[in-house]
Write a structure and sequence with these properties.
Blueprint: E1 9-10, E2 14-17, H1 24-32, H2 34-37, H3 47-64, E3 68-73, E4 79-86, H4 94-97, E5 101-106, H5 115-131, E6 135-140, H6 145-154, E7 157-164, E8 167-175
Antiparallel strand pairs: 1-2, 2-3, 3-4, 4-5, 6-8, 7-8
Helix pairs in contact: 1-3, 5-6
Amino acid sequence: MKIVAAPELRTQRLRMRPHRRDDADQLLAMWQDPVVVRHFGGNPVAPEDSWNRLLRYVGHWAVNGHGLWAVEELETGKFIGDVGLFEGRRGLGERFDSAPEAGWVLLPLGHGKGYAREAMLAALRWGESLYSWPRTVCMIDPENAPSIRTAEALGYRVFDRQPYKGTELLLLERAAG
């Protein structure tokens, strides 16, 4: 069975769904939020780049059968961010680039509630059960203490530090299960 769009997943508090065309404005707002972009290079993204990100999210599922989900609070229906597993091809070496990359980014209204951990646990369980990946990786700005805590709670451990787009980042990995 080839997966061409994100399946809907639900956790106790969250709905994870495929990205849609009408997410464009919410994505742009998220990627222009100074709190969000602080650990992603520090600069708000242009509308064109946000639109291209949305297209990349949708296309990743069609090409690879996995990718990122749009995340909403079940209680309010509000969009709070993106989480998932993707193929980044970042040129950070075989140990990093050979594994699916986990990623999570939430709007400030989703910070401090355990949402990133809750959604990523669902994404990891989904991906590992379907694809039997032996490991996944992620990269985090060493100044992003909340994201590091989330990664550690998910079982990720630092294995390297490398420069990426002008910033030295932590490279982490997690064994499946």
